[in-house]
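Purpose: get a first structural picture of the assembly so the mutagenesis plan has something to point at.
Setup: two entries, given in the order below. No constraints added.
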Amino acid sequence: TPSPDLLMARSFGDKDLILPNGGTPAGTSSPASSSSLLNRLQLDDDIDGETRDLFVIVDDPKKHVCTMETYITYRITTKSTRVEFDLPEYSVRRRYQDFDWLRSKLEESQPTHLIPPLPEKFVVKGVVDRFSEEFVETRRKALDKFLKRITDHPVLSFNEHFNVFLTAKDLNAYKKQGIALLTRMGESVKHVTGGYKLRTRPLEFAAIGDYLDTFALKLGTIDRIAQRIIKEEIEYLVELREYGPVYSTWSTLEGELAEPLEGVSACIGNCSTALEELTDDMTEDFLPVLREYILYSDSMKSVLKKRDQVQAEYEAKLEAVALRKEDRPKVPADVEKCQDRMECFNADLKADMERWQNNKRQDFRQLLMGMADKNIQYYEKCLMAWESIIPLLQEKQEAK
Amino acid sequence: MTHNNFWLKKIEISVSEAEKRTGRNAMNMQETYTAYLIETRSVEHTDGQSVLTDSLWRRYSEFELLRNYLLVYYPHIVVPPLPEKRAEFVWHKLSADNMDPDFVERRRIGLENFLLRIASHPILCRDKIFYLFLTQEGNWKETVNETGFQLKADSRLKALNATFRVKNPDKRFTDLKHYSDELQSVISHLLRVRARVADRLYGVYKVHGNYGRVFSEWSAIEKEMGDGLQSAGHHMDVYASSIDDILEDEEHYADQLKEYLFYAEALRAVCRKHELMQYDLEMAAQDLASKKQQCEELATGTVRTFSLKGMTTKLFGQETPEQREARIKVLEEQINEGEQQLKSKNLEGREFVKNAWADIERFKEQKNRDLKEALISYAVMQISMCKKGIQVWTNAKECFNKM
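Result (structure tokens, whole complex):
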């Protein structure tokens, strides 16, 4: 049964949507009061966090060395005034596989919603050092982004598994429990395991699909360009590191020119350092975010496909009913359920897509401005270095 | 640039044009070459106006001839070098082709610089052949060759021999030779690496151009983000194309370094001349000493040194006193001559060292001035490049901000 959250959420997303007959389905508890609904509504539009009631931060990575394995845990700090949380503040430690578990659970329990992506699970050993500061920091940022996206989501942030993830002292115990029980929603949607082929995707979803395809393509190209730039910059850096010292060698041969030449050598050294900082920043901050968005759009595409499945099932059942003359004119309950499911899904998807588009715009604005900033800082460092040696070069030496 | 020369007037020299020509060479074969127009103007003191006094065309080989002549007749002078015959230390985008217009242009500037250096040299500017180079188009080559300077040139073999065998060269010249070797080595290295740096920098800038295209394509599917992306893309294109001018400017810096790379060779030539003269002197002194010894032995009858005459005397019997007298006479004449020669060689040597060292001091000052200027202009180029970079990325950032 769809969670009541969906019923509430729909009212701000799409006014034309047909509400299912009957009130709240039995067996599920109603979410909080209208005040929390208000919060959820405001949460969407609000950027400055003034009316937020849930804050999550991922920080403080720590290495754990055990007999069987070595791994990293991150501290998750949660602050909330929501009634779903017993305490106002929580602090727990989680490792990557816990995040992975959370994501699976969310996909299972909220199949009509877009779940944010996680940074890649597997890293090729030997190529990347899983315990290097840079790698851990990059991952931490991605995990933090992941949780923040869930936090920002009006439906996902109320998910039970999410709550447990943020609060439970012993997550493993809860995990074991979860294996035995499947959520009802998960079960019912899992029923739709395919075998239904959708004839035509409705125009609006086809447009979303096309957009995502092109978007992923363009992102892929940008990723390749960015990587190529970093590669060229590193090769440039290698040459610079040989170039600078030659001026130094030359200065040892000279008298009056010794200081100026040494100055130029030092200057080139400073520029080399600045360049190294630029390439490190781009590798750590720019590329991972770009890649994550490609994963994000892939997630959205698979949600689209699931939606297609639901629609296909509905249409198939509707057709089947049309052929069975005896049920006319009353539409059987299970077909109605299908229609419900489909309409829920459509609404959720559209709402999520809109939210995703907005976030994407913010995220890319920030990402690209960041890229511009880093380049500006690089040039400013070099400028300062060269401007500072002009007086040295112009200095007239006293007759020796 | 105006300079004094023995016309006692200020003159301006410029190599103003370069032209492709075809003609027949010494072996009567068709060839293509570049000719350069040399214009000389004299500047009237009174109104500062310059009047074109001479204008003629010369090709590179004639410049080479002039320089070779100067090397022979002024061995104590650090003779200004010519720009390179073939393009070296090129980074990939530049053509290594001698006919390439950029190369020809840079060579034109180099040749002008060569003439200006000579014209501003206190001694070289007075040379008649140099004067004729600027003023007499026809027959100049014949005139140079008639001086017979090729015959006066020291053979390379002789010079090499002297280098290895000289015993007491002036330490200053030994040090200077060492310095010029090191200078040549370090500037070569610098130019090689600089070319590689230029190559890489070119790559970095050009790849950014790809952003222009992809941002444009991406903006087509976006609503609010579209404009910002599109205009940012345009700035990326500007960034990518800015590198061409930047690296063009840097070539001038490379040319300034190259001149001093070739100057190192000129320095070495002066040192070699000193070694040659010193070696000559040492040989002459040695020869004189041995003749004196021979003479003494003959006179006193003692044989201290091994001589063929001594051997044959032992084998075939002693010579007559008349014969001995005759030999002593010959030796005494030779000794006299030898002493005169040694005296003049000594004098020559000292003159050479004095004059050469004076020019070397002049050269050192010039070198320090010029290279400082070159480094300053290089720094200025880098500053300009940084400022352009900041501008472009700031513009792009503003576009991203509007997304």
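Chain B touches chain A through 49 residues (CB under 8 Å).
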